[in-house]
Amino acid sequence: MENTIKVERAILSLTQDDLAKKIGVSRQTINSIEANRYVPSTVLALKLSEVFNKPVNDFFKLSDDD
């Protein structure tokens, strides 16, 4: 899975820590999601959707490997 979390975060001028606090996870979790080392749960994806005010499909995409 690929994502544009880092870009979406930059658009809102949020640090990894800011975003982590908004959705109730650690900064390391945000870092791992951005680096494609961790696939978030549906609940976390929906929380990100609320923060970015966009559908989940706008910032998460299936890769050819999925």
Automatic annotation (TrEMBL):
It comes from the Bacteria. PROSITE patterns: HTH_CROC1. The keyword DNA-binding applies. Residues 5-59 form the HTH cro/C1-type domain. One of its GO terms (molecular function) is DNA binding. Keywords: DNA-binding. Coiled coil: none annotated. PANTHER family: HTH-TYPE TRANSCRIPTIONAL REGULATOR XRE (PTHR46558:SF11), TRACRIPTIONAL REGULATORY PROTEIN-RELATED-RELATED (PTHR46558). This is Putative transcriptional regulator. It comes from Winogradskyella jejuensis. The lineage of its organism: Bacteria, Pseudomonadati, Bacteroidota, Flavobacteriia, Flavobacteriales.
